[in-house]
Amino acid sequence: MVTIQETGLKEIGLLAINQAKQMGRSILVSDVHKIDPIDPLLFFHNGRELFLGERFFWKDPSDEMLLIGIGILKQIQSDQAADRFFHVESMWKEFITESMINNPYTENGIGPLMFGGFSFDPYKEKTNLWLKYGESQLHVPKYMLSIIKGQAFFTTNIVCSQNDDLSLFQKVLDERTQLLNSLHKGFQFKSANLLDTKEVSPQEWKVTVDEVVNDLKKGPMKKVVLARELRLFFDDTIEADTVLSHLLEEQRESFIFAFETNDNCFIGASPERLVKKQEEEVFSTCLAGSISRGKTSDEDQLLGDTLLKDQKNLIEHQFVVEMIQNAMEESCEEVILPANPQLMKMRDIQHLYTPVVGKIKKDTSILLLVDRLHPTPALGGLPKKEAIEKIRQVEMLDRGYYAGPLGWIDYKGNGEFAVSIRSGLLQGKEASLFAGCGVVADSDSESEYLETSLKFRPMLTALGGK
Asked: What is the pLDDT of residues 369-401, one digit of tens each?
């Protein structure tokens, strides 16, 4: 059984109530404890009873950082299309100002933290598919488990006002004890069976690809990324816990995430980092150009060597490298990246991959970098503005959070965002999966269709499809 000392929270609570009365405003209280390791999936699952629809899950590809949030203490949301990253950052800074944080540890990703995402294009007409998600939506959890390089930390977040008393903190302590005591019960995964799969307008999508190819041959645009949707139907409600368990088993080398809001859950296993900030260092990833995995090691190597020499994919990859390098150089004192791409091998697919490292200039925030980097040419196209306008005009799909930035920021300004590809939206007994591909002047619509089919595979497999 996991136990956390109660006296510390009551002591800081009394100070916070007095401070709230003096200032005439609410105060955030955050209490951090180091604990014995907990199974992160068990913690996520057992949060269902108290906080279904208010959970998030995050794991980085190295397994060095796992974050599981339960309960929504504060929702930071902006539906302003212009300057949305700036508005979210301003609201976050205002929320944590004058907060009382009991955190004796130096690790990032503990204490007050917000997790969530941004839609791919806030100017795209919104459909009912993404009705439950705002254009920018991040949650500050009530309770959070952070597992950092094998060490476990538990954060409790509370907002107290000048009208509160210690009964608020006793209520939180009781709820926290209930949550932690539930961890000894264990759990069983409940699977829903896939009944039907429907491709959404595949022929119309191919026609759109052909039309965009003609535009690219005539005009100044170099590349446009087009995405499509696969709709799945099940015999029972799809549980995010079960899908996460499959992703953790099958796609361990990816960013694995789940972000609930109400009765919807955006979930996926993305190979692509947008940006990570760790004190003064920032990291990004150039990922574009892909091919399937081989059935044998020899075939796999042959496919990888083919990808490394394929001019279409190399050109597409270089577009991404140049854009990310330029965006990083605007915000960094120094940027380092290798001269040639290497291979990133996932379970079902392999990509051309170039890592980028930079040392940031003073006062550069992670959301400023997200703003400059999103969307990369791998998910939008080139030139950026014209490509997004073309996508907005011709793409039938409302991408919502697909291909948008999703991740976390802590109160010290550190954090990480992935590009939320290889993802799906769970909605009761139905789910939508999303996949896209880069269209260039010599693209073939049938080949691009097959590429998107390959990119559906990680999520389709996790949901029990073939």
From this structure: 999 999 998 899 999 999 999 999 999 999 999
C-alpha dist (Å) from residue 391 to 124, 150, 225, 247, 376: 9, 42, 7, 29, 14
Distance CA 275, CA 332 (A): 13
Calpha distance 77→94 (Å, rounded) = 13
| Residue of 54, 229, 272, 451 with catalytic role | 272
| Contacts by residues 343-346 (CB-CB < 8 Å, ≥ 24 positions apart) | 343/304, 343/307, 343/308, 344/271, 344/287, 345/293, 345/300, 345/304, 346/251, 346/253, 346/254, 346/271, 346/293, 346/458
Residue (of 355, 346, 340) closest to 308 by Cα position: 340
Given a cut of 70, whether residue 45 has pLDDT beyond it is yes
Q: Note the pLDDT tens digit of each residue in 231-258.
A: 999 999 999 999 999 999 999 999 999 9
Q: What residues does 107 pair with on adjacent strands?
A: none
pLDDT digits (tens, 9 = 90+) for 424-436: 999 999 999 999 9
CA–CA distance, 389 with 224 (Å, rounded to integer): 10
Query: In Å, how far from its chain's centre is CA 57?
Result: 9
In the annotation, is 10 catalytic?
no
Catalytic, out of 74, 124, 223, 277:
223
Tokens of 454: 């390959």
Under the banding of pLDDT at 50, 70 and 90, the label for residue 184 is confident
The alpha carbons of the chain give a radius of gyration, in whole angstroms, of 22
Give me the numbers of helices (H) and strands (E) for the chain, helices first please. 12, 21
pTM over 0.85: yes
8 A C-beta contact, residue 44 and residue 57: yes
pLDDT digits (tens, 9 = 90+) for 430-457: 999 999 999 999 999 999 999 999 999 9
272 is catalytic: yes
C-beta separation of 306 from 291 below 8 A? yes
CB-side neighbour CA atoms (13 Å) of 406: 34
Q: Which two tokens stand for residue 305?
A: 């060597």
Helices marked H in 33-153 — which ranges? 40-46, 48-51, 84-96
pLDDT, residue 266, reads 98
Report the alpha-carbon distance of residue 391 to residue 380 in Å, rounded: 8
Q: Which residues make Cβ contacts (< 8 Å) with residue 22, sequence separation at least 6? A: none
Give me the mean pLDDT over the 101-119 stretch. Answer: 97
Q: HSE, CB side, 13 Å, CA atoms: give it for residue 236.
A: 8
Burial of 57 (0-12, 13-18, 19+ CB in 10 A): buried
The closest of 172, 164, 141 to 74, measured between CA atoms, is 141
Please answer whether residues 401 and 120 qualify as being in contact, where contact means their C-beta atoms are separated by less than 8 angstroms.
yes
Average pLDDT of the chain to the nearest whole number:
94
